[in-house]
């Protein structure tokens, strides 16, 4: 019997004549996907493949994240709270993947990286269009980033549209206003290309929700979803900064920045400031 030979026989129903049919490789366009790794080091450096694939897989997850965050914003705009929760749950898991993936790149030592770093020229993750779109969707708007894409008008247009559109938090504040919460008018119609400006007047809105969670359970759950998203996103930033620190120390970045110091400063940014501040103020007399 095959079990004794430690093999699994094919079943007779399994398709083996796939000429002209939709196949795995065809559906997934694997011919293109798996021939898109082009190491530049010469002679080829063993670890450049890791470097390329780490970035390419990150870009694929970022693509899904943009897809899901865009849907999340659209659900919120249309008061589809349950659907919003489903999509955001997926975003959190995608961010988990992106964050945990740093452990693969952390196996690259400084000595190995230095052997091929020079081939990267001025290229840098700083120029990732999809990463910048995610930052803008979450609300970290920065008009200055658009000029980084001057060399690519299509990319520049995509980023400009993301800059000009309301972010997740903007749509959330509009949602709260529609459902009777006292969101100041300045947050309901404004120049969306600016980042959200922290506002004391929003604190009572969130205090009311967090102090009466039975009544406002929908709003409360949405708030906690946003807190999860920001926390998870910060973990990605932190792991990136620590990975960079262990691989290039305090060297300048290939993109022209100061390196680790520049990445550390991103950790002080916040998408949803009032959602963290409300935690300080609730429960006080
Ligand atoms: C050896 C590995 C890596 C090193 C040494 C490194 C280093 C750096 C440095 C120094 C910067 C600052 C900009 C600059 O001057 O270049 C940066 C930015 C960035 N990197 Fe990396 N990086 C690495 C891997 C990755 C990976 C795998 C990704 C995944 C896509 C990534 C995405 C980014 C992004 C999105 C930024 C912009 C961050 C921001 O604007 O706050 N990096 N990286
Ligand atoms: N900024 C990195 C280079 C780097 O990591 C990189 C280069 C090209 C494409 C993506 C990259 N990833 C993140 O910045 C460095 O300074 O070594």
From TrEMBL:
What does the cofactor field's note say? Binds 1 heme group per subunit.
According to UniProt, the reaction catalysed is: L-tryptophan + O2 = N-formyl-L-kynurenine
Which InterPro entries does the UniProt record give? Trp/Indoleamine_2_3_dOase-like (IPR037217), Trp_2_3_dOase (IPR004981)
Which keywords annotate this record?
Answer: Dioxygenase, Heme, Iron, Metal-binding, Oxidoreductase, Tryptophan catabolism
**Could you say which enzyme class this protein belongs to?**
oxidoreductase
Instruction: Enumerate the residues binding substrate.
Output: 51-55, 113, 117, 254
Matches recorded under Gene3D superfamilies: 1.20.58.480
Q: Where along the chain is heme bound?
A: 240
Biological pathway: Amino-acid degradation; L-tryptophan degradation via kynurenine pathway; L-kynurenine from L-tryptophan: step 1/2
What is one Pfam family matched by this protein? Trp_dioxygenase
| The protein's Enzyme Commission number | 1.13.11.11
Give cofactor(s), names only.
Answer: heme
Q: How does it assemble?
A: Homotetramer.
What does the function comment of this entry state?
Heme-dependent dioxygenase that catalyzes the oxidative cleavage of the L-tryptophan (L-Trp) pyrrole ring and converts L-tryptophan to N-formyl-L-kynurenine. Catalyzes the oxidative cleavage of the indole moiety.
- Which PANTHER family does this chain map to? TRYPTOPHAN 2,3-DIOXYGENASE
The family note in this entry says:
Belongs to the tryptophan 2,3-dioxygenase family.
Q: What is this protein called?
A: Tryptophan 2,3-dioxygenase
Q: Gene behind this chain? A: kynA
């Amino acid at each position: 019997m095959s079990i004794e030979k430690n093999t699994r026989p094919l079943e007779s129903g399994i398709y083996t004549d796939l000429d002209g049919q939709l196949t795995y490789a065809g559906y997934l366009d694997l011919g293109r996907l798996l021939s898109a790794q082009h190491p530049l080091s010469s002679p080829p450096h063993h670890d450049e493949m890791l470097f390329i694939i780490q970035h390419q897989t990150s870009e694929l997850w970022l693509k899904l994240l943009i897809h899901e965050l865009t849907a999340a914003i659209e659900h919120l705009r249309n008061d589809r709270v349950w659907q919003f929760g489903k999509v955001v749950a997926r975003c959190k898991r995608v961010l988990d993947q992106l964050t945990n993936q740093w452990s693969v790149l952390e196996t690259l030592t400084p000595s190995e990286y230095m052997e091929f770093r020079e081939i990267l020229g001025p290229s840098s993750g700083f120029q990732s269009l999809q990463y910048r779109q995610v930052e803008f969707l979450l609300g970290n708007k920065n008009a200055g980033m658009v000029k980084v894409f001057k060399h690519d008008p299509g990319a520049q247009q995509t980023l400009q549209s993301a800059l000009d559109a309301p972010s997740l938090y903007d749509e959330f504040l509009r949602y709260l206003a529609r459902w009777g919460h006292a969101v100041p008018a300045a947050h309901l119609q404004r120049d969306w290309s600016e980042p959200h400006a922290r506002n004391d007047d929003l604190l009572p809105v969130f205090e009311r929700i967090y102090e009466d969670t039975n009544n406002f359970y929908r709003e409360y759950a949405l708030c906690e979803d946003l807190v999860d998203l920001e926390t998870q996103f910060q973990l990605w930033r932190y792991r990136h900064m620590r990975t960079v620190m262990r691989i290039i120390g305090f060297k300048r970045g290939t993109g022209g920045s100061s390196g680790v110091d520049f990445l550390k400063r991103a950790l002080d940014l916040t998408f949803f400031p009032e959602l963290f501040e409300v935690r300080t103020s609730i429960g006080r007399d």
